[in-house]
Design goal:
Blueprint (H helix, E strand, L loop, with lengths): L2 H4 L2 H10 L1 H14 L8 H13 L4 H18 L7 H14 L18 E6 L6 H14 L4 E5 L5 H14 L3 E2 L7 H14 L4 E5 L7 H18 L6 E7 L4 H13 L4 E5 L9 H9 L3 E5 L7 E3 L2 H9 L2
Parallel strand pairs: 1-4, 1-5, 2-3, 2-4, 5-6, 6-7
Antiparallel strand pairs: 7-8
Helix pairs in contact: 3-4, 4-5, 5-6, 5-12, 6-13, 7-8, 9-10, 10-11, 11-12
Length: 317
């Protein structure tokens, strides 16, 4: 199946719309950075470095990008400022491609890993439960049988919100009373999902960072209990980050990657912010694939992250 058979015109339009604020911000900054210049020189590179850092790409990733562009300029001898965005697009796409798995084609799960278990982590307020609901919708739409587990038992609102999403999407939600052991909820969810031939199981967890030791212990306990039902579980530990918080998302990623073995990222709320550059920095810095991006409130507004399309949308075709 070719790339364009699954990246539809509608998805591209949603991506362009969702990243429009970031694109407008970045382009206006780049335009100012190269004003009056005919070629890419040291002044342009210094200005470009400032543009990327103030666009929440992050210092380390920005320096990598600038170094790559410097090498291209040195190799090609003469690069005009009109070529700069194309150069940026190519180098950032290359950077995102390194040390990562291939982009996922659709909301499919490996046949040999059913039920595919996703444990979702992240602080309260980043859109964690909403992301779970949208994931459930997308997986079900792709023909999968989905189960949800309400293991964030410390907030009644979290359980209620997940139940509402389950009803909206039409998938079962396994829950217990407020204050129940989260690991017990995870165990019940996996047991029920396994018995009923589920394809995908998504487990919500509490979003607390004030005590990293307790968080680590809790997440470890949930993982260990799930392995009693399915030895390979969880297949994916998905960290949800709020893209609109910029550099705060970096700090949250540091905390959670220290607390548990995160192997996938979802960056939400990109449509309401000009901080979309944070996706580039986080993807590069943590060497953990950004798997999903949130571009709006609707159930269709959670997309699989496709690096080339993301960069094309941000910097133009």
């Amino acid at each position: 199946m070719g790339f364009f058979s699954f990246f539809t015109k509608e998805k591209k339009e949603n991506l362009d719309k969702g990243l429009s604020k970031t694109k407008e911000s970045v382009f206006s900054k780049i335009t100012k950075a190269i004003a009056g210049k005919s070629k890419v020189d040291d002044d342009v590179l210094d200005n470009l470095e400032e543009v990327l850092i103030t666009s929440d790409v992050g210092v380390d990733t920005t320096l990598k990008i600038i170094e790559r562009i410097e090498k291209r300029v040195a190799r090609d001898k003469y690069v005009t400022t009109s070529e700069l965005t194309a150069l940026l697009r190519d180098e950032i796409a290359s950077l995102l491609t390194e040390n990562h798995t291939e982009d996922q084609a659709d909301f499919v799960v490996p046949a040999e890993k059913k039920p595919y278990v996703i444990m979702v982590v992240g602080v309260n307020g980043v859109g964690k439960t909403t992301t779970i609901g949208k994931l459930a919708y997308q997986f079900k739409k792709a023909g999968n049988k989905v189960y949800l587990g309400a293991a964030d038992t410390f907030r009644a609102a979290a359980v209620e919100q997940l139940v509402i999403w389950g009803e909206r999407v039409g998938v079962p939600v396994v829950k217990q009373n407020m204050g129940s052991d989260p690991a017990s909820v995870a165990y019940d969810t996996l047991s029920s999902a396994k018995a009923n031939g589920a394809d995908v199981v998504i487990i919500d967890t509490a979003g607390r960072l004030h005590n990293k030791i307790n968080l680590m212990n809790e997440l470890t306990k949930i993982k260990n209990v799930m392995k009693k039902v399915l030895p390979d579980a969880p297949n994916e530990i998905l960290l949800v980050l709020d893209g609109s918080t910029g550099q705060n998302a970096f700090e949250q990623a540091k905390q959670f990657t220290a607390a548990t073995e995160v192997n996938a990222l979802a960056v939400t709320k990109l449509d309401g912010t000009a901080k979309g550059g944070v996706v580039i920095g986080i993807s590069d810095h943590f060497k953990i694939p950004v798997k999903y991006i949130g571009l709006g409130e609707g159930m269709e507004d959670l997309q699989l992250f496709r690096r080339r399309e993301f960069v094309n949308s941000l910097f133009g075709e």
